[in-house]
Amino acid sequence: MYVFIGVFGVLLYMGLLWCFVRAGMPPIPAFTLSYVIAVSVTFLLNRYLNFKSFERAIHKQAGVYVVITVLNYLIMIAVEAVGIGPLRLSPMMAYMLSIPVNLPVAYFAHRFLTFGPAR
Length: 119
Hints:
The protein is an all-alpha fold. Helices cover 81% and strands 0% of the residues. It has one domain.
């Protein structure tokens, strides 16, 4: 289920990114706005459909989720900056380059920290 939700999140992110870039938004703000929307949606989907994690209040899970998401965002932006800079990739290809870096980190962090058992 995590993979399906992740794929949905990626497609949502890429669709939003495409729309924002086509509308004239610079790449870094477009990356950021797309990311905030997509991770908010995937948080709710993971909480309710995937991990079915209700032992802790949603605001506590959301706080952990935000910390992990900010770290993943920084990794993603660094990889994307290299992609659109020195590698001269399109914004979409630069994002695709960041996926294999972030996927395992995000899964294990969310599985055990965000949605893991209450402590």
